[in-house]
Amino acid sequence: MYRPPKSHAQTSLFCSLEEQLNHKPPLYVLANKIDWNKFETEFSKLFDEKMGAPNKPIRLMT
């Protein structure tokens, strides 16, 4: 019996992570509604730029 050759295309290899994610989960929707720059501005006032380890993304802290 004849079978068509399997396609081994890797189209997702060159797609961004944003394109690969499911956009329906509530946390995904919520994360895109939050103004993360506002949080970064407010939290940056509490930390010293010259001392300590490099900062982590604000999304990990909130």
UniProtKB/TrEMBL annotation:
What's the superkingdom here?
Bacteria
What residues does the Transposase InsH N-terminal domain cover?
17-61
Quote the protein name from its UniProt record.
Transposase, IS5 family
- Organism equals Fibrobacter intestinalis
